[in-house]
Amino acid sequence: MPDPILVTLDGAVLDPNVPLLYADDLAAVRGDGVFETLLVRDGTARCVDRHLDRLDRSAKALDLPAPDLDRWRSAIETGQRVWAQRWGGDREGMMRVVYSRGRESAPVDAVARARSSETGISRESNEATAYLTVAPVPQRAFDVRAGGVSVLTAQRGYSIDLASAAPWQLYGAKTLSYATNMAALRWAAEQGADDVIYLSAEGAVLESPRSTVITVRGDTLATPPPESGILAGTTQQAVFALAEKEGWRTSTERLRTPDLIAADAVWLVSSVTLAARVTALNGYRMPTPERPGEFADLVDRAILAG
Fold it and tell me: What predicted TM-score, i.e. pTM, was given to this entire model?
């Protein structure tokens, strides 16, 4: 695989083979940071505003310094420009934006120290780490776009009320702490499946480790509510916005496993994979919809419009 493109927040394009992080960066030692992943298609990063809005919300949830969104837009433009120069816009890229609290050993300035005394929150560092990379979209994404995914449901182990009762759990924030999600995917692979759909303690459908769940029932698209402690999907939002303009009905509602089985189709939607149809759920072979390309085409057009 070719080397990724590396761009720091100040717009510098660096050698990706030269180390960037310090050994005590809190992204590495604690996963104390947030990230976003954008699709670069036709040389342009897609749904930038939606991703930056979510980056800002995630940063607030972690009490990170407010990200400078204008500087992030500029860095994204640099990243997509260098990517287009390298590949001529013909190859899809995966752009990962990373924003962490910085070094554990960095000194705390007077402003941060004063804020800590006011809030009771100890801030280890006032020098955040901020950069982005662009690399080719993994082959897996193309494979599941074309062939779909087999999925197992898995207990996440908490109630849908936990997000509001325990905000420190950071449900709904896109944090760097993805070890549990990766473990769930490895567990699914050991069982012969491709992916997981999490369920709450009450049996409510939540999300996939890397995707939002959307069901299709006739002319209605439905997805679980973010209030249940899931990540608000940028691609799902773009899809619903375009779908409503084109006459689809959209719904945010509580879903359960029987609702998935009864749907015309179930899709896992994300920024890079885009749309992967669930072909099997807990070993049950899902029926093929009459027009399987219709929803995938909607997602393609939505991310271009978004």
Answer: 0.90
Domain boundaries along the sequence of the chain: 5-137, 141-305
Residue range 141-305, CATH number: 3.20.10.10
Scanning 148-233, the segments in alpha helix (DSSP H) are 162-165, 179-190
Strand partners, 212: 269
* Listed residue (306, 282, 229) closest to 53, CA to CA: 306
What is the number of other CB atoms lying within 10 angstroms of the CB of residue 252? 15
Give the 3-state secondary structure of 238-283: HHHHHHHHCCCEEEECCCEHHHHHHCCEEEEEECCCEEEEEEEECC
Q: What per-residue confidence (pLDDT) applies to 141?
A: 97
Ordered DSSP codes for 81-129: HHHHHHHTT-S-EEEEEEEE--BTTSPP-HHHHHHHHHH----S-S--E
CA distance 61 to 26: 16
Q: How far apart are CA 299 and CA 305, in angstroms?
A: 10
The residue assigned the tokens 């800590």 is 116
> 5-137: which CATH architecture?
2-Layer Sandwich (3.30)
Could you report the per-residue pLDDT of 26-85, keeping only the tens digit for each?
999 999 999 999 999 999 999 999 999 999 999 999 999 999 999 999 999 999 999 999
